[in-house]
Structures are given as C-alpha cells and as structure tokens.
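[Meeting: bench + compute handoff]

Bench side (C.D.) handed over the final construct sequence. Compute side (W.E.) agreed to return the predicted structure before the next meeting so the bench team could plan truncations. Sequence as handed over:
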Amino acid sequence: MKYQGILVAELLTFVFSTGVVGVSSPASWATSSDGVYKLSSFETPVKGAGNPGSGSTWELQVDDTSSGHKQSITGFGAAVTDATVSSFSALSESQKTALLADLLTTSTDDGVAFSLFRHTIAASDLSGNVYAYSDEVDPDLANFNLKTEGKDMVSWLSQFKSINSAIKVVGSVWSPPGWMKLNGVMDGTTTNNNLDHKYASQFAQYFVKYIQAFKSGGVDVDAITIQNEPLNSQAGYPTMYVAADESTSLIQNNIGPALKSAGLTTEIWAYDHNTDVPAYPQAVLDGAGSFVNTVAWHCYAENNDWGVLTQFHEKNPNVAQYQTECWTSPTNTWYSTIDFVMGPMQNWASGSIAWTLGSDTNNGPHLPGGCGACRGLVVVDTSAGTYSKTLDYYLMGQFSRFVPRGATALATTGSTDYGGGQKFEAMSFVEPDGSRTVVVQNNFGNEVFLTVKFKGGETWSGKVYKESLTTWQLPPASG
C-alpha cells in the first residue's frame, strides 16, 4: 500500500526515528569545509581536563544550572518555495522516499530531522511565474483557488506532516493578489506598491481561506507572517510595502479578528525582516499584542547584528523570536550558514530557517528579478531525477539532528570573533532528560583542543577539527 508514492511501512519506520532523544554515552560529530566530514563521527570527548598536547587550546564555560537556562528550542529547517516543490517533484519515486527520510528523520546516516518549515503563500521570487490564489477582482473571494502550484505545495507539506506530525509550518506572503493593491499588480513596479485598504477585510479573508484550504489538504498552518520583508518594495518579483503602523492596524483590526472568528488558532508573527529596524516589530507588539507574541527576523541588514535579538528580549522577555530567512548560496563563505544559526541561538532565537530547502542545478526556478544565487540545501538534477546535499545541508544538520524540540539553550561563554572570519563560537543545550549538546564552530585552519567546563561541576574535553562545525553529545551529569 502506498500513500502519495511512499510505502506505508516505510512511513511507519520514519515516524519512530524523527529525532535523537537523549544519550547515554558521549559522542562527537563533525562537518568540515574540506568535505572530509559530513555529519560524520569524530573523536569522542572525554570526561575531565584531558591532555591537549602542544596544539591550540580553547575553553568554554556553560551554565547548566537553572540560572543558565534560556529559550526553549522549537527547531531548525528551511523554506519550501515553488522552486523547492518543482525540483522535488522531478525526483524518481525511490529518490523521493530517500529524500523524505533524510530531511525529516535520523533513520539515515545523515538524516537531519528538520522540524521547522517556512513556506511561500503563492508566488515569491523563487517561482516559475507570478500568481496568487485569487488573480481576478473578487471581493467575495468566491473564486479562491490554490492553483496547481499551491496544491503541489500542500502535497509535499502533507507528506512532511505524515512523517512527523510535530513539524511547525509557517506561511509568508510575498504579495497579496494584485487587485488588492493600489498599483493593481503583484510585481513589475514600485509605484503605489501598497495595499488598497478598501480591501483590508478581503486581505484578511485571503489568509483565512488559505489556512482552511491547506488544512483540507492535510497541512495545519501553525503560524503566518502577513508580509515577507514589509520594508522591501521593488520591481521584478512580488513584494509589497507595509509600514509598521499599517501592519499593526491590519493585524489588530482585520487579520487577527478574522482568524479568531473562523475558529483558527494559527499564530501571527510580526515583522519578518532585517535586524536594523527593531522599532518596527516593537510597534506591532505594542499595538497588536493581543494577537502577536512572536517576532521573525532576517539576516540581510548591512552590518547585521544578531545582538539586536538579545536587546529585544530584554525589553520583551515573554516574546518568542525566530530567524526566518537567510540565504544559502555557492557565493557565500563556507561558514555563513553556521553564522545564521549560531548567532540567533546565542541571542534568544527559538529556531532558525534557511532560504531555501531545495532548488535545481541552476539555483531555480526563479523569476527574472528574483534571486539567481539562492541554492537549496538540496540540489536536484531534474533530468536525472536525483538529488545531492550541499555543505549547508550538513551544517544545518549539525544543529537539527542533535538538538530536538523541547531542548533548552544554556548560557555559554568563551566565544570570540576576531573579525575577518576568524572566530571560535559555541552554543550549548540541555534536553528534558538532562542530556547535553555543545555545538562548536572552529573557523581556524588548525585543530583545537577544547575544554568545556559546566557550572554544575563537570568538565569535558576533546579535539575540534579545523574549519568545521562540531557537535558534542554528552550524557546527563552524574552525581
């Protein structure tokens, strides 16, 4: 028997292996820039100070007492775009089954067990064409239709949910239907690229109908952002400018009440843009806090500073934060993916999402004005029906495979960034059973002997490979 091309027996196997739950003995795993290690077993750390020899050394301090407990972790993952869906759909059936196991479970040697996905609501820059779920003027939204692209998106996300029902799905709009906007189009101009507020209630109902349609297809949408990058208005692909006070009004007076009236529990996350304008999400929280308790951040600000999230947390200690978009590209440094996970984790983020999950070998499909260098974590050869995994895939897996949902971030000190890419960074976590995970970024061109001192009393030590991301799994503290 098959479910959407996947053997039910295989699905049942996957369901029971969707994450690492606690450890009883120490282990080490590494991914390196030279490709020698790809989520591979590395030298096991030992309890105690160990013998560093004559090589480089480093020390970290971890507060594993209750005073060192920080944010709860929701998960890690990537964006599911139209490019992702069309690329994945070109795979052979056997490759689809293998891919789902890799992405959503630890049943394979390098399975990454992703649990957090952001998807595009209708067209984005990583689409083959511009479309909405309601293309013609339709004030009653009587002709609302997911189109082929939306239905294919639902099909893939429902398969994700079938394998791991606990995944969190976040939907983001790049532009509402053109007829709802002052300029009348989804792309092609920056003039009057704003919502026409006579359609504010229709805009709210657009979200209601989309959430209901996805639910009918087997996908519960856990959260939405009402506009991707609301301060980015440009030609070439779908965008829309939404000011902070406008976002506040739409959420408080239209979208929030519409979701509530429809009996939907989907969360609304604020902002979904760069760290350089924290006043924007603060204004939304201040004005629409009855419907919003989470902020989404991107990484594209000039001189991006993840420390903004800590500053935001200090003002809003009960507000959850996520890094929801940062690109993976062949033009990036080898460690850029580490930076957009490690940095937010060090600064109170509960999850991190890569842009994007999958693409073809030409970093697409994408619109003419869209990102031509946004390579998926998984690259599909659409002619051969096969896929390959990038370095970014493995680097994300160093977090997602070993830090399960429900883990708690621990205050970790000793990280240092000397600039110019010369850095040694770390983050630590504890699971409900007391198991601990330490993720270490070594940007130096030599191995480092690392000592980790836990405030609770234990010390662990061992080697960290050159230019790598290394994950230590440690058992619960003894005694």
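W.E. noted at the follow-up: The chain has two domains: 27-71+408-474, 74-400. C.D. will use this when planning the next construct.
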